[in-house]
Design goal:
242 residues; seven-stranded mixed beta sheet; two-stranded antiparallel sheet; 18% strand; binds nickel (II) ion
């Protein structure tokens, strides 16, 4: 006789065993209950945290976009400035009028982002330089770390990339003026035991037209091709004010 077909044992002793087994099962379910609640609460917590972080990032992004001004009808970027170039000479925005110009703000001790952006600018200049029909494009690198970026150190540093980018520094007031004019965000981090520090800063390349006016800006996400195409388009449709 197989155990499946075994008739139910209804003896009081067998009933007692069955009851005790059932109670054990129930008890273990109750025991498992709170674990289930903890799991659910944790999952809900993670989902809430995910949306909170996402929302926070979105708010920061919106703030950044507002800060850099997307609406070209109401452009408030750019203005007059007077700085010191990498050869120690006084230069101003007027010296760069008459040509298209890219302006980037960074610092020579930047570990990876500034080098990438400088390389990108050089590549953009190389790409556009191959088209003889296009006007000349200049590029400026303005420091957000004047404490370490002297004219000499800017010159040495930028020469590693290209001789096409000119480094600019200046006194505190003049630098503050250009940073404000371009809505540049920057914040000095804590110094380590060697006195080394990172400067957190906005990563934006600005395009100025030959009138010295803002024509647009490019975020870090834009590739060399994106920027070259956008600059070329701007150059082609731009007409000097008569
Ligand atoms: Ni940087």
């Amino acid at each position: 006789m197989s155990p499946v077909n075994k008739p139910k044992n209804n003896s009081p002793y067998a009933k007692l065993i069955r009851k005790s087994k059932e109670e054990k099962k129930k008890a273990s379910w109750i025991k498992g209950g709170p674990n289930l609640y903890i799991l659910t609460a944790t999952a809900v917590g993670f989902v809430a945290l995910y949306y909170y972080v996402k929302q926070k990032m979105k708010q920061q992004h919106v703030a950044l976009l507002k800060n850099t001004i997307m609406d070209e009808e109401n452009v408030l970027i750019g203005g007059n400035w007077e700085l010191i170039n990498q050869d120690g000479e006084k230069v101003s925005n007027k010296d760069y009028e008459g040509d298209w110009c890219l302006i980037y703000f960074g610092f020579t001790h930047c570990p990876d982002i500034c080098p990438d952006e400088i390389e990108k600018i050089v590549e953009v200049m190389d790409i556009l330089g191959k088209n003889p029909g296009l006007p000349k494009l200049k590029a400026l690198f303005v420091t957000v770390d004047p404490e370490r970026d002297s004219p000499e150190s800017l010159k040495t540093y930028l020469a590693e990339f290209s001789d096409k980018i000119v480094g600019l520094t200046g006194n505190a007031d003049e630098l503050r003026k250009i940073w404000n004019a371009f809505k540049v965000y920057h914040s000095m981090g804590p110094k380590d035991e060697d006195g080394d520090y990172i400067v957190d800063h906005s990563i934006i390349t600005y395009l100025m037209n030959p009138n010295g006016k803002y024509e647009g800006h490019f975020a870090r996400s834009k590739t060399n091709i994106d920027v070259a195409n956008a600059v070329e388009k701007k150059m082609n449709i731009w007409k000097p004010k008569s």
